[in-house]
Specification:
Elements (H helix, E strand, L loop, with lengths): L1 E5 L2 H13 L6 H11 L10 E6 L5 E7 L4 E3 L4 H13 L6 E5 H15 L4 E11 L12 E4 L5 H14 L8 H9 L3 E5 L3 E10 L3 E8 L9 H15 L4 E7 L3 H9 L3 E10 L6
Parallel strand pairs: 4-5, 10-11
Antiparallel strand pairs: 1-2, 2-3, 3-4, 5-12, 6-11, 6-12, 7-8, 8-9, 9-10
Helix pairs in contact: 1-2, 3-4, 5-6
Length: 281
């Protein structure tokens, strides 16, 4: 078993894309990110780093990607995670956070602890959900949907920051990134009559697209605006030819999980984050 490091997204794609597409929804973060990297988009800290784990026969058994915020893992075997932990430690590579399928990623955290002796702390658990058909909310919300324009940049940036703050996420959507998503017509606002909720297409894969940054200001909540906005954006994406849409919800939030299930979303897997340097958090 061995690990190869790639600095060029196109090389990583050639090596690992077929492996990742076998679980396309589960690997949507990695697939979407290296597609963005291939387009020249650079965000977060440091240069991109891409790793592929091979077994003794040369078959891919795992992959990982660093794009500036956390090291994102695919599903692998305990031996695959141990091999990657050993590779990173022996090459002096240390990342602050790691995330992957909840049922698997703890194997990397334990291997990293055994290899380096450095403590780690489990972080948030999110639930990845997928829909092939999106249905209307059972309780219609007042108002209507419209695609955001450059005039909405200030409110969209403010709401994106509020969204990441509420979830205690390290990443922040810069105004330049929000403006780009607006220019690409990927930001949907629900209005009644002024904007009251938002949802954004935040990642795309070969057959699907991920909805994120779903936000409604606290004073506008419990009126069905977010459900209406997500349902409308999901229907539009499928209407444009996407085979499925997916999103992440807090795994322990029964209310949001029930709402998304009522719109046609089904659980795929839980996603776990680990803080690999909790003493500096």
């Amino acid at each position: 078993m061995h690990v190869r490091h790639f600095s060029e997204p196109s090389q990583f794609a050639a090596a690992a894309e077929a492996f990742l597409l076998a679980r396309e929804a589960e690997n949507n973060l990695m697939l979407g990110l290296f597609a963005q990297l291939a387009d020249g988009r650079r965000e977060g800290k440091g240069d991109p780093a891409l790793y592929v784990v091979y077994d003794d026969s040369g078959a891919v058994v795992g992959a990982a990607l660093w794009a500036g915020y956390q090291l994102i893992f695919s599903r692998s075997t305990p031996e695959g995670y141990a091999e990657l932990a050993d590779y990173l430690a022996s090459h002096g590579m240390r990342y602050p956070k790691a995330s992957g399928p909840a049922s698997e990623i703890s194997a990397f955290a334990l291997a990293d602890l055994g290899r380096t002796g450095m403590p780690h702390a489990p972080g948030p658990v999110m639930r990845l959900m997928q829909a092939k058909v999106v249905v209307e909310p059972s309780r219609p919300a007042g108002g209507y949907a419209r695609i955001a324009t450059a005039d909405d940049l200030a409110v969209a940036t403010q709401w994106s920051d509020a969204f990441t703050n509420e979830l205690n996420m390290a990443a922040r959507d810069r105004a330049a990134r929000i403006l780009k998503t607006i220019q690409e017509r990927q930001v949907l606002l629900w209005c009644d009559p002024e904007p009251v909720s938002m949802a954004i297409v935040v990642g795309e894969t070969k057959h699907g697209a991920r909805i994120g940054s779903v936000y409604t200001p606290p004073e506008r909540r419990r009126r069905g605006y977010a459900s209406a906005c997500v349902a409308e954006l999901g229907k539009r994406l499928i209407g444009q030819g996407r085979e499925f849409v997916y999103l992440y919800a807090e795994a322990t939030n029964k209310t949001s999980n029930h709402i998304y299930e009522s719109l046609g979303f089904e659980p795929v897997c839980d996603w776990q984050e680990f803080d690999l340097d909790p003493q500096t958090a």
